[in-house]
Write a structure and sequence with these properties.
Hypothetical Protein, Haloacid Dehalogenase-like Hydrolase, Chain: A, domain 2, globular, 14 strands, alpha/beta, Rossmann fold
Length: about 260
């Protein structure tokens, strides 16, 4: 059996159950990985603040991949690497989205999330453990210079999804990280690119990395991993490229497959 040195897992829809809880089986499996010499890192579209309860509960020590790969952060919240949203496209994107009646959220390097006006679909972001701060002006120089990612809380069926992809995908990274999590970032920002940087710093080979995911933003993560595991509830495009499919996040699929195939 291949000896892995690093396990990387997505959070919502993968590590956590449908109630955004870390199940006892998943927790025990990851802690047993660490005891057996397999380090654990989280790779999520979320901010570091909203996953600190996980890093603390598991006692994680390695850098964590947050904001869909735009920021690599220590478990304590210190930013080690960040790829900002391209300032030259910031106002164009924000104004375009708002002119069509949609309210985006914007996230800065410190993990804080802001909006100009609340929208109904932002409840999905809040329910995932994030805090959204309402401000009067999201077009200020501060935000132009410091925003890392922009999200538009819409489903894939919303016409705005296709519009944003068609209009901006040549100049910006457009990726879905969940049913209502639609992220727009720098073209250089991805979970895969962040993982590539991390394994280089740890002197780990790609073949020694096992990764878990469920969403399209995990595709780049899989491409930089030796063993790719999708949970049963994953988007079809991720299942297609996975080496194996585990049980769903609602049935502790991550923990089950760790004991069956990793340890």
């Amino acid at each position: 059996m291949q000896k892995y040195r690093l396990l990387v897992t997505d959070v919502d829809g993968t590590l956590l159950d449908h109630n955004s809880k870390l199940t006892e089986l998943n927790k025990r499996a990851l802690m047993d990985c660490i005891k057996n010499g397999i380090d654990v890192t989280i790779a999520t579209g979320k901010t570091i603040d909203s996953i600190m309860f996980i890093t603390r509960e598991l006692g994680l020590t390695l850098p964590q991949i947050t904001m869909s790969g735009a920021a690599i952060v220590t478990p304590e919240g210190k930013v080690l690497d960040v790829i900002n949203f391209p300032s030259q496209f910031y106002l164009e994107f924000i104004r375009n989205v708002r002119s069509k009646g949609y309210e985006p959220t914007i996230a800065t390097v410190d993990g804080k999330i802001y909006c100009r006006e609340y929208s109904e679909n932002m409840k999905h972001i809040i329910n995932a453990g994030e805090n959204i701060i309402k401000v009067d002006d999201i077009e200020s120089d501060f935000f132009i210079k410091n925003v890392v990612s922009i999200s538009v809380p819409i489903s894939a069926a919303d016409p705005m999804d296709a519009y944003i992809r068609k209009t901006f995908s040549s100049i910006l990274q457009v990726v879905r990280s969940g049913e209502y999590f639609f992220d727009i970032l720098n073209l250089e920002a991805s979970k895969g690119n962040a993982l590539k940087k991390l394994i280089k710093s740890l002197n780990i080979k790609k073949e020694e990395v096992v990764s878990f995911g469920d969403s399209p933003n995990d595709i780049s993560l899989f491409k930089e991993s030796g063993y790719k595991i999708a949970v049963k509830n994953s988007f079809p495009e991720l299942i297609e490229i996975a080496d194996i499919v585990a049980d769903g996040n609602y049935n502790s699929g991550l923990g089950k497959i760790i004991y069956a195939r990793i340890l």
